[in-house]
Here is the input.
Amino acid sequence: MQDFKFKRNKLFCEQVSLQAIADKLGTPLFVYSYNGLISSFNALKQAFSRVSPLICYSVKVNSNLSVCRVLAQQGAGMDIVSGGELFRAKKIKVPGKKIVYSSVGKTEAEIEAGIKAGILFFNAESVPELELINKTAFKLGKIQKVAVRINPDVEAYTHRYITTAKKQNKFGIDLMTSRYIFLTLSSKFKNLDLCGIHMHIGSQILKNIPFAQAMEKAVKLITELSEKGVKITHLNIGGGIGIVYNQEKALDLCAYASSVIKAVENIDLKLILEPGRFIAGNAGVLLAKILYIKQTPVKHFIIVDTAMNDLIRPAFYQAYHQVIPVCMRKKTELYKTDIVGPVCESSDFLAKDRFLPDWLKQNDLLAVMSAGAYGFVMSSNYNSRPRAAEVLVKADKYYLIRKRDSFGDLVGNEIVCNV
Ligand code: LLP
Here is the structure.
């Protein structure tokens, strides 16, 4: 996380002290680095520069309008999964021609909105969905580009909840059915331009092998189809590139890019990428304030004002996020502790069995690292806790990009009925 560094014992995001931002805006607080976002986007762009792909940032990862806009300004398209995400993309004026839409459960209204917005591709995940897109396009008098999301049945070696391309998973269409769609069913779909293959095999993947295996299957399918007269013009290889949360070995981005490029260099097609975590994950932290320090007969706890409702990854996937003090003091003893929130669940922890300095005290700040991806977007109001504020730092300035929920926001949509 090169944009989060200590200077004179204080943790900074770019040139702004995190303590100073929290003193002004309070905690829980997500802080994102502008440079962190664009440098990872540009590293990806650079690695694939020989084939200049369309890089569609995966909005679900961190859908704050300002974050998406920063990336759109760098030339990113958007990978969306709902009408809500389409609304966001349109709000920041991402051209329809740079939007791709995945999801196993697109509703008719969402399909209609996507066609009207002129999106580049629907990544279709079932035959009935193809039928509905075709019917809707017919109704609107349009021909819609569609990619078939294939399920290549590969092991992604990641958490089982975020593995998406095993045949047991709900995602995509098996290879045999995909062939049948292109070769036989397609003639039925007069309002579809079935010219793309899409895949997304999972998330937080740190090995090249699963990507290479999926690629091999996709290229084989594209070649077979071309021999039978069906031309695939776009291959969307999805997202999934993992990041370093702790001590993992990073994926070799250049090796990954080279193997993708090598696999498609003799085929005339446009590549699309849908990265998310790789762009935003290490560009953000979550700041928490220590409320109490509690020693029980068997365990030590640091209780903070930030909880599973703010960052659910540790509770949900047993995910590891580094936790570090925002202001360092003299070196002393470390003690083993759990960092927990106020929510009424024993799964409400941010970190377990961590070694932290014994000088930590009430009101000190902790930074939960690598919280830029799947952080705020997965947060909730559980326990009627207002959702956190979000801040974007660029050089020596910071900008509030989402206000903290007020208590009014918590009940704003509720109706007290007279029963
Ligand atoms: N494309 C599709 C179709 C996806 O389903 C996803 C993520 C992406 C792209 C972006 O994947 P990425 O580059 O970020 O790996 N909440 C989980 C991760 C869920 C991933 C969902 N799909 C977590 O916190 O680890």
Observations:
- Residues 58, 61, 79, 102, 162, 200, 203-204, 238-241, 274-278, 313, 317, 374 surround LLP (CB under 6 Å).
- Residues 103-273 form a domain with the TIM Barrel fold (CATH 3.20.20.10).
- The first helix runs from residue 18 to 25.
